Amino acid sequence: MPANNRTLRVAALQQAWHGSKDATLDRTEALIREAATGGAQLVCLQELHAGPYFCQHQAAELFDLAEPLDGPTARRLGQLADELKIVIVGSIFEKRGTGVYHNTALVFDRSPELAGFYRKMHIPDDPGFYEKYYFIPGDADEPGFQPIDTSVGKLGVLVCWDQWYPEAARLMALAGADILIYPTAIGWEPEEDTAENERQTDAWITVQRGHAVANNLPVVAINRVRHEADPTGVTDGILFWGNSFICGGQGEFLAQADRESETVLMAEIDMNRTEQLRRIWPYFRDRRIDAYGDITRRWRS
Amino acid sequence: MPANNRTLRVAALQQAWHGSKDATLDRTEALIREAATGGAQLVCLQELHAGPYFCQHQAAELFDLAEPLDGPTARRLGQLADELKIVIVGSIFEKRGTGVYHNTALVFDRSPELAGFYRKMHIPDDPGFYEKYYFIPGDADEPGFQPIDTSVGKLGVLVCWDQWYPEAARLMALAGADILIYPTAIGWEPEEDTAENERQTDAWITVQRGHAVANNLPVVAINRVRHEADPTGVTDGILFWGNSFICGGQGEFLAQADRESETVLMAEIDMNRTEQLRRIWPYFRDRRIDAYGDITRRWRS
């Protein structure tokens, strides 16, 4: 990261699904242009932003939604990054090969060429979120937990379910990430009670702010909004809870969106802050790497 | 843990230093009795509760403050645990051998005998907190990151600086901990500005609530209160910030103390909740133990 560029203007685009891929990407493009006009150097999109959250049910024909790393969604994002001279973090349903699919984040750095990608490493699977049916977990080393080098810094891009795993954030930090970015699609079952909904939303925010604190790194979390029906009618669908936010390396909120609006959430991040924080709170100095070996065990018994 | 004992009444004793060890332990005993009268089954004390926070400066004579695992402070806590039929988590400056000292948490389980101990694994060292001068970090395996088995569950006892390390919380959880407990002594330099003080306090709360969320475990954090002078006069001393709290496995606050009062903070924890949470948010199922090996590296480059 250039020494003279220590303030980073970041935008998180909190969006809804607009009924078709073209309509949704048109809306995304408009919001990206709005962010760039507002001075954003880094624009972050939500998980699987070009489509609906299709994992609510299992259907073989939905694999048609997948695209390769250089497919139409990637090309459109790359052209925008090139034209607007910004860094864009996008997300696609990736077809890597016949029968080999991933949930993949893409990074474009002021150019139509792919700067790097990250394949979601932790794949959830529970009623309404049947992701293990669609996505193979990312390979351990290709690229694994590796930040992506760009003109605005090393981006520690992780995806949704990864956000509950302190290991993922730590590995990105140890590999030199300057910022953690979590494209997300998370929501409530509409019939759940309000108190439980609030606990879940707050837990989601808190655990990611915790990664910021533990690693002295800023965090950007981008979530979708609005209700999407379950095409099978088995459930009441998912009400995506928004609440996208940007926080600094002490977990302090820099910007926070509401639970329902499409919005360009902007914040200015002081990129010198991590260096300062790692001096006053030198956690990395005191890690007990001699005693952490059991982290790679399933259970200690 | 007995199947019929699924609600746990916990007390966290937020205390000040009272000028002498005897006066302080007398006050601690009064608060322990108050907690027991209020129905507490588990009473948690703050870090190094029998003394001042003596690590503000380096002085060889302060090693006189240390006690063995069966010293007077331990005996007093053990007698109270036995008399009141409660579990007590205490904390001492431990003399393990000549020239071998630790910062050690002790657990007594309704008996004068030591149920288990934990030696602080991460030792801080910064102006006003010269702990590396006094404490050897705990050994990796004796006991290392191991919860302590008691009649109220497996206690994942960690100490202060450990609270910034997600690895420590995770290792306790993987070893079957039912609850995480952090005896602490943390405060502000009195001359720091208010906004920075608030960021620090909130970061301290947030990272620990993050461990609760990431591990689906309740957390008890016990901090001291009031100002303690720097005997050398080099600094303005430390204003310990209190804010002890108890939260559930979604990071939700069950009880929270203020920043200055001595108090018996009580909460009732639903100990069935972890089982429920690990079913609806099954993080442990999806951990990428094949890809976490670099957690034991100092830096990934």
What does this structure look like?
- Two copies of one chain form a homodimer.
- Chain A is an alpha/beta fold and about 300 residues long.
- Chain A has one domain: Nitrilase/N-carbamoyl-D-aminoacid amidohydrolase.
- Helices cover about 25% and strands about 25% of the residues of chain A.
- Chain A is built from six helices and 15 strands.
- In chain A, the strands form three sheets. In chain A, strands 5-4-3-2-1-15 form a six-stranded mixed beta sheet. Chain A has a six-stranded mixed beta sheet with strand order 6-7-8-10-13-14, covered by helices on one side.
- In chain A, strand 4 and strand 5 (about 115-120) form a beta hairpin.
- The N and C termini of chain A lie far apart (about 45 Å).
- Chains A and B meet through helix 4 and helix 5 of A and helix 4 and helix 5 of B.
